[in-house]
Design goal:
The complex is a heterodimer. Chain A is α/β, with parallel strands linked by helices. Helix content of chain A is about 40%, strand content about 20%. Chain A folds into two domains: about 5-125, Rossmann fold (3-Layer(aba) Sandwich); about 130-235, Orthogonal Bundle (Arc Repressor Mutant, subunit A). Chain B has helices at about 5-15, 20-30, 35-65, 75-85, 85-105, 115-165, 170-185, 195-200, 210-220, 265-290, 290-335, 335-340, 345-375, 385-395, 420-435, 470-475, 495-505; strands at about 185-190, 205, 205-210, 230-235, 240-245, 255-260, 380-385, 405-410, 415-420, 445-450, 455-460, 510-515, 520-530. A five-stranded mixed sheet of chain B has the order 8-10-11-13-12. A four-stranded antiparallel sheet of chain B has the order 1-6-5-4. In chain B, a hairpin with a 6-residue loop joins strand 12 (about 510-515) and strand 13 (about 520-530). The chains are: A alpha/beta, B alpha+beta.
């Protein structure tokens, strides 16, 4: 690797989990720091440079959500939350606190790695100020406010573009319904999920090769939407590495 | 003394049937000491009546030669006595006597009278006025009492009914609060405990409880401050609040704060006595209705609920945490370069992974089953796209559906449905699992969506083992396991039962059809589509 190895902070009180995460990450060229408590996690995140944090929700000394909030208060480092059992409302809450993504335990290493790479790529883009986002055949040029599908320029309504823009700014990560509604239609519409459903459908008709089985603008049921970037391996599916179930329509 | 404010008279009236000596006294005071000013319209009507009667009588005496009609003046006396009370009746009596003396007794047009009849008339009129007005007054009061008793009974009945359906402590406290507010005709805030008072920022039921009052409530509720008689607190705004325990005997019923408004010291003392009377009665009622028992029972019930939740939570956590390690480690191992060459070892690692995954699904099913049995499914409904639900269910089952050909037939422009998308997705996952379990590897599983008559149908069809008629009838039952497959397929028989419960929680229905054994199965979900209820986009939503 020409670039320096990314450093990941693993926060979990279970030593077995930390051990397999360490092995899994190291096999994939990451440098791993471990923390078994929330306090230790916050200390490590303050003192050592890290590129990403994996935070378990059930920590012995404090709630994982508090760790997310504390780290987020001074750092924009990507945070992925691990939780054993979470309702969709909890996921939304975590994302609003500043977590970039979540993975529900039990999970496979491939799934976690896919999420980690997406988060790292987004962070790099944010740092470099890269103005274009690619998602499969779709290119969104945030600087020129242009959307290209297979290099052909698409005509979008202002709201459709705004929706795609917000998703592109968080490309690869879930964006909650509330966040999208607030950004696109304003705070008074944060509970009007049907707005999103209708506009996402219109948008998919324009940007998806097969709008019935979307692969670019995908739904995270009960939570929000995700713009799936090209090259994000496996689209973070189940824990198997090679399974594929393509649907025909 | 209870002068003009109508609100207080009503409060006094409301207390009356609660049989208290001080209060019935108060009622008498109200009637006797009604200011004469308030009776002026009644007196005016009485005078008009007497004048009109005099005119008619005068005409009759003149035309027909009626001897004299002084007795007729009893009519206004009786009318005034029954309708307006003793003062107008006496006015009518005196005026009647004077009018008959002036107009009808000789010498006419003079108040001087020779006949002693005149004096007797006056005595008779006054007697009738007093007697009739007293009678009428008593009748009126009895009527008022009866009406009041009826209202109170109705209140009490409503209160006891609310208690009967009250599910937890807060329901019971809300009922007590409303009951007291309706008896007292004042703003009443009830705090169940010191903690509730200190936690609340003072805003309760649309009104703000001042800081000082809250502090006092905390003192009383924690038993530090004995306030059996109630403590008077003057809020920052100058309003006077009374804070006391609902029951002098126990703090179980909570502590109330009553807004007495801007009242003078003496008045608020009077009100405080009245509050005591009402509360003594209310507590007796509460005790009679077994509220204390109900409260402790509700506490127990919520504790049982909490215990079960905690148990489910901890089982879920305790079982899944090791599973997460097993599964995670297995996936790391299976991708490890060192193991790639070792085919047999790789196969073993895959077995570990698959079995751990199965165990995880079984735990999830058990948890879902517990949730359903404890009646705990609360759908979080939102407007959802049926296509999204189906796609994400297929995505969730990707691993299991890997070697099946999935055909998705979703027409464009499906209506949005108002459901809990997660529950529908989980039900679909169960149905897919079932289809995979009872069909051959490599066979086709078809998911088709159709709308018809305001319903949306999701049909999942496999080319598998099919169903006999008895199997089709029992397939959605709990622990239903096909006897034909008992030896070859594993499972708990919970999956489809969970699916049907999740669909039921969304007002939907499930059904199963099959051409027969070996001819495939179609499992269908039917969901309501209420397009009328879909809120319209505001104009300009797309600008």
């Amino acid at each position: 690797m020409s670039e320096p190895a990314p450093i990941v902070l693993v926060v979990d009180d279970e030593i077995q989990i930390r051990r397999f995460l360490r092995t899994g990450f190291e096999l994939n060229g990451f440098v791993v720091h471990e923390a078994g408590t929330g306090a230790e996690a916050i200390r490590t995140a303050t003192l050592r440079p890290i590129d990403l944090a994996i935070v378990d929700l059930g920590l012995p000394d404090m709630d994982g959500a508090d760790v997310v909030e504390r780290i987020r208060s001074w750092s924009s480092v990507p945070i992925i939350v691990l939780s054993v059992r979470s309702t969709e409302a909890q996921k939304v809450h975590l994302l609003e606190l500043g977590a970039d993504d979540y993975v529900v335990k039990p999970f496979g290493m491939a799934e976690l790695l896919a999420r980690v790479r997406v988060a790292l790529r987004r962070q790099m883009r944010a740092v470099s100020g890269e103005p274009t986002v690619k998602a499969g055949p779709l290119t969104i040029d945030l600087a020129a406010r242009a959307v290209l599908l297979n290099d052909k320029r698409l005509t979008l309504t202002p709201k459709e573009y705004r929706l795609l823009q917000v998703l592109a700014q968080h490309a690869g990560n879930v964006v909650t319904h509330q966040h999208l509604l607030k950004e696109v239609w304003g705070s008074i519409h944060v509970h009007d999920t049907h707005y999103l459903r209708i506009f996402v459908r219109k948008l998919r008709q324009k940007i998806e090769p097969h709008p019935d089985t979307p692969k670019i603008l995908v739904t995270e049921l009960g939570v929000g939407y995700r713009l799936v970037q090209s090259g994000a391996e496996g689209e973070a599916g189940a824990w198997s590495e090679s399974t594929q179930a393509k649907s025909e329509s | 003394m209870y002068p003009s404010a109508p609100r207080q008279t009503r409060v006094a009236g409301r207390i009356l049937p609660l049989t208290d000596s001080t209060t019935s006294l108060a009622m008498n005071n109200v009637t006797v000491l009604n200011p004469v000013r308030k009776q002026l319209p009644a007196i005016f009507f009485t005078l008009t009546l007497v004048a009109a009667l005099t005119a008619i009588l005068f005409f009759l005496v003149w035309e027909i030669g009626l001897a004299h009609g002084s007795i007729v003046y009893l009519i206004p006396v009786v009318i005034a006595a029954t309708r307006w009370g003793i003062v107008p009746a006496l006015v009518a009596a005196v005026c009647g006597v004077f009018a008959s003396a002036y107009f009808f007794y000789p010498p006419a047009y003079s108040f001087r009278v020779k006949d002693p009849q005149e004096v007797i008339d006056l005595i008779l009129f006054i007697f009738v006025a007093v007697a009739v007005s007293q009678l009428a007054n008593r009748l009126k009061r009895q009527l008022e009492m009866a009406r009041q008793r009826e209202i109170d009974l109705r209140d009490l009945y409503a209160f006891s009914r609310r208690l009967a359906v009250a599910f937890d402590v807060s329901d019971i406290h809300a009922a007590i609060e409303d009951h007291l507010a309706s008896i007292m005709q004042r703003n009443v805030v009830l705090f169940a405990s010191a903690r509730e008072a200190s936690d609340s920022s003072g805003r309760r039921a649309g009104m703000t409880v001042p800081e000082r009052v809250l502090t006092e409530v905390v003192e009383v509720a924690s038993g530090r401050h004995d306030a059996v008689g109630g403590a008077i607190v003057t809020a920052e705004s100058g309003e006077i609040w009374l804070v006391r325990a609902v029951s002098p005997k126990s703090l179980e019923f909570g502590v109330i704060a009553i807004n007495l408004g801007h009242e003078s010291k003496e008045r608020s003392d009077e009100l405080r006595i009245r509050v005591d009377a009402v509360l003594a009665d209310a507590t007796a009622t509460l005790e009679r209705l077994g509220v204390a028992h109900a409260i402790s029972e509700a506490r127990m019930r919520s504790q049982t609920d909490q215990l079960r939740e905690a148990l489910i939570g901890s089982v879920s956590h305790e079982l899944r945490t090791p599973l997460a390690s097993i599964l995670g480690a297995a996936t790391v191992l299976s991708a490890a370069p060192a193991l790639r060459q070792e085919k047999k070892l790789t196969a073993l690692v895959h077995d570990v992974r698959d079995e751990a995954e199965r165990l995880n699904n079984d735990i999830q099913n058990l948890l879902d089953a517990t949730r359903i049995s404890s009646d705990g499914i609360k759908p979080h409904v939102e407007w959802a796209d049926p296509g999204d639900i189906i796609n994400s269910a297929v995505e969730r089952c990707r691993h299991g559906l890997a070697d099946r050909r999935i055909v998705i037939d979703v027409p464009p422009d499906l209506p949005l449905i108002h459901v809990d998308p997660i529950l529908i997705q989980q039900a679909l996952v169960q149905i897919f699992d079932n289809a995979v379990k009872y069909s051959e590897s490599g066979s086709q599983i078809k998911v088709a969506v159709r709308t018809q008559d305001g319903r949306l149908n999701i049909n999942v069809t496999d080319n598998g083992a099919g169903l006999t008629t008895t199997e089709a009838a029992k397939i959605w039952d709990r622990f239903a396991r096909g006897e034909r497959h008992a030896a070859t397929t594993s499972g708990s028989g919970l999956g489809l039962w969970i699916a049907s419960a999740f669909i039921g929680a969304n007002d939907g229905k499930v059904s199963a059809t099959s051409e027969g054994p070996g001819l495939g199965t179609t499992l269908s979900i039917e969901l309501p589509v209420s397009q009328d209820a879909l809120p319209q986009l505001e104009s300009g939503a797309d600008e």
